[in-house]
Amino acid sequence: MSDHSRCCAGHHDGKPRKRSGQDVDPAIPLAGPISTTIVSYAARVRHRVGEDAVDRHARELHARASYDCWNGLSEKDQELWRHMARLDLTR
Predict the structure, then answer these.
(1) Of 2, 79, 6, whose CA–CA distance to 38 is shortest?
(2) Model's pTM, two decimal places?
């Protein structure tokens, strides 16, 4: 996918986007058991796996499974990929 104008307006500066603090404003609001599990698991394993490693592995998993651009994903979708990466890295 060489033309990123539709997915992310061509913003590929190489730096990850700043996420809001997960303790205050999680990407996935606590609205049910699934979102609560994702947020609580992230808090439980934060001391075992660094956020940089989680983000890097999430991008790798996404790249293997999709042709979509990472920057074009919503914050919720990115957080779901990060959750899958946390699960994969802490097994």
Answers:
(1) 79
(2) 0.71
